[in-house]
Amino acid sequence: MPDSRDLRLVWDLPVRICHWLLVLAVAGSWLTHKLGPQAFAWHVWCGYTTLVLIFFRVVWGFVGPRHARFASFLRGPAATLKYSGSLFGLTAMQRHAGHNPLGALMVVLFLVLLGAQGATGLFANDEIMSAGPLYGYVSDETSDALSDWHRELTNVLWVAIGLHVGAVLLYWIVKRQNLVGPMFSGRKPGELLQPGDEIAGSRVWLALVIAGTGAALLYAIVATAPEPSLLLF
Asked: Do residues 72 and 98 make contact, with C-beta atoms less than 8 angstroms apart?
């Protein structure tokens, strides 16, 4: 068993906060959708939160600490296939301090899905009385098409969430690796890491600047958008 006293920092604080805030934002988006038109304003705020978090995570993927950077965990098809084989004993078992190659693909998938989900929601409408803040930029037909995409992407997102949760459970039950704990503490047992895998800090100040910039950009875009002209209003 790993020595619980020898825990080393791998996941920086901004990555961990972003991860769990995205969980809450997605759950909140689903709940406010189910509650109907009376919760639409909260649904919009969940969407805003998601977009700012996606903006942050993409930028953080280039300037954040080591294991947060795309360059540290994105791998080509050959490396991904080799790692997949190691899960079934076909190749030597590989350890990764940060995201493994399959986990890296899931990170990219979530960034694309959630980004697209939030972006289409800005232009969508519910064909009753509510519309996204950027509805005024597009025609009714375009808004309807983006609304369809917004709904269809939800189904794809649930499949991705199911795969992600299933993979975490697989690692926990079969591989005896707890992937959830480090996403709270940021730390992993030292014996699972290689020399130099530990990060020195989280660069919280830089994360705040990036998140604040994303929020300011979104505010500027929404605040300057034309008023929606839904005939159903």
From this structure: yes
